[in-house]
Amino acid sequence: MNDLLSVAEALARVLNRVEPLDAERVALTSASSRVSAEDVVSAVDVPPFRSSSMDGYAVRAADLPARLAIVDRAAAGRPSQAALTSGQAIEISTGAVVPDGADTVVPIERVEVDGDAVTIPEPVPTRDNIREPGGDVEAGSTLVSPGDVLTPARLGALAACGVASVLVHRVPHVTIVVTGTELRPPGVQLAPGQIYESNGVMLAAVMEEAGATVTRLAASEDTEDAHAASLEEALASDVVVTSGGVSVGPHDLVRRVQARLGVEEVFWGVAMRPGKPLAFGCRGRTLVFGLPGNPVSALVGALLFVRPALLALVGNPDPAPPFRPGILAAPIQPRPERDDFVRARVTWSDEGALVQPIVGQESHMIMHTSAATGLVWIPRGVGALEAGSRVRFLPL
Ligand code: AMP
Ligand code: MG
To answer: What's the CA-to-centroid distance between 219 and ligand 2, angstroms?
Structure first.
């Protein structure tokens, strides 16, 4: 582990190995947060017809001011069959077709109605309160392109154009293998030397939040055979994430077993803290991440490398972790030889995000980390930083 990769180089090597998953057609109603794998072109204009944006009266502007005969009513979904002529008005509701012959809509608040007549005391310009066909979308225009995340507004736009389904990349299937003879599931009694297994539920949450479906296998004890059985099962998925057993101890068997199973190691060791002994490899199209066992190291590795890979697998064109600018609220003294990922609480001021490093930065301190809302990235070589220094952080 002498020549440690930088975080940026390690992420580049991960993303370099990602091929987007196959596409599948899904109903728009199941497409929220998925990523389009196609150009979707509108077959229709939106609005599809001249429609009223107000409740009021469709009239001819040239007639005004005037007292006009109300000759018909047009409601949304119930067009008037009449064509308007001079001296006439048609009562109209929001979203109704503006009748032929009318060139403006006068809102109900600006008229006086008595019986079958309406008095409009002021002149109004033509085209007032009329939405032209194609004013939002012209037929033939592109609604979404490959790589576009289907946000709520994009789903709305697709539906407004009558699109019922969309081609999206398949959801990645991740299998999580936690390793360690000492691990027991929460809820049981611990024997001496045992601890509760906490990485599985945490890593699954990161993956699910990134849109993956997750299978968790029972904790694998630290024998080659146990690891081999779990890993072989896991390697049928798109992504395998292991925790623990990836460092240099005599019971750190994950890399050896992976090699035995035909996993090609792309790198091992990243110049970062926490989480240095992180391994990444591939077998066929399956991506294999070996995260360290310490919970904070596992979490940081998942956020910096696994999550971006999951986003890239579904065709997201911008999968890198979204670090943002912030200002240090207290001085820090990071170690110079590695990129340091400092857990911090983020508050907002008029100057932007203020990041206050939390107390308890050791890599087993998951409870302390759970108070953090940001992960501050201090690149290696930076040295001591004063309060007020500009930094970048990843919201947690
Ligand atoms: P390892 O990377 O296997 O040497 O594990 C490093 C430390 O993390 C050890 O103290 C382990 O007991 C602990 N650890 C490993 N895996 C887990 C896990 N799934 N949940 C909680 N702690 C773990
Ligand atoms: Mg272990």
So the answer is: 11
- Does the pTM exceed 0.90? yes
Distance of alpha carbon 270 from alpha carbon 85, whole angstroms: 78
CA–CA–CA angle 380, 386, 387 (5° rounding): 120
DSSP-derived secondary structure letter, 78: B
- Kindly calculate the radius of gyration of the chain based on its CA atoms and give it in whole angstroms: 31
Q: Whose CA is nearest to atom 3 of ligand 1?
A: 244
Render the burial of 164-173: b for 16+ CB within 10 Å, e for the rest: eebbbbbbbb
Reported as a single tens digit per residue, the pLDDT across 5-32 is 999 999 999 999 999 999 999 999 999 9
Q: For residues 375 and 303, what is the distance between their CA atoms, to the nearest angstrom? A: 10
Ligand 1 atom closest to the CA of 182, numbered from 1: 12
Distance from the alpha carbon of residue 230 to the mean position of ligand 2, in angstroms: 15
What's the 378 CA to ligand 1 centre distance in angstroms? 25
Residue 106 CA to residue 98 CA, distance in Å, equals 12
Q: Cα–Cα distance between 39 and 227 in angstroms, integer?
A: 44
Q: Name which of 204, 143, 148, 169 is nearest 318 in CA terms.
A: 148
Q: Token digits for 173?
A: 């299937």
- The token duo for 191 is 């024997």
Q: Exposed, middle or buried: residue 229 (CB in 10 Å: 0-12, 13-18, 19+)?
A: middle
Ligand 1 binding pocket includes 195 (Cβ within 6 Å): yes
Locate all alpha helices (DSSP H) within the chain, ordered by sequence: 7-16, 152-160, 199-209, 224-234, 254-260, 295-301, 307-313, 366-369
Q: What separation in Å is there between the alpha carbon of 251 and the centre of ligand 1?
A: 11
Which pLDDT band holds residue 2 (cuts at 50, 70, 90)?
A: low
Atom 14 (ligand 1): residue with closest C-alpha? 293
Q: CA–CA separation, 30 vs 136, rounded Å? A: 25
Of 176, 180, 177, 175, the C-alpha closest to 364 is 180
Cβ atoms of 270 and 7 within 8 Å: the answer is yes
Q: Hey, which residues does 265 pair with through a beta bridge?
A: 281
| Residue 213: both structure tokens together | 């479906």
167 pLDDT more than 90: yes
How far, rounded to the nearest angstrom, does the alpha carbon of residue 72 sit from its chain's CA centroid? 49
Residues contacting residue 72 through CB under 8 Å, at least 6 positions apart: 80, 81, 82, 90, 91, 99
Dihedrals phi, psi of 125, to nearest 5 degrees: -70, 160
Question: Closest by alpha carbon to 298, among 386, 199, 222?
Answer: 199
